[in-house]
Amino acid sequence: MNSILKPSLTSIGLPSVLEPVGLTKDRRPDGGLTLNPWYRCRSLVWDATVVDTFAESHYIVSAAIPGSVATDAETDKCQKYSDFLDNYYFQPVAIETTGMYGKSNTPFLSCLTKKLIDISGDPRERQWLHQRLSLAMVRGNTASILACVQA
Description:
By secondary structure, the chain is of the alpha+beta class. It is built from five helices and four strands. Strands 1-2-3-4 form a four-stranded mixed β-sheet, with helices on both faces.
């Protein structure tokens, strides 16, 4: 997912670094940091994660409320990186293996795609970004299944 988000951010004028070092003493986000401000004079820090919808610990909740596993992962990421919130704009990017996004991803991706459309003038930017993210999910799911079969 990072290899999809980083070029998208760069194309709207926000160069970034992946897995930035030095934001905190003991951890770094599995995502990136924009070098220019994203919102309210703050750089964007994102942490991308894919959550297994069908894991034993998730399948009851995911069956009841679609996207709830990704939303829970977003909440966990926000708590994990709560010390970033004073200096950076933090965006968790959580997607379930079925392709459902967490709740905070919708406004973030809408804003990103709006900026992509403004730059390129092509209204299909939204579909293209979602297609790239979906293909990354399919590739990840395929690799996971093949790893189980070969074991």
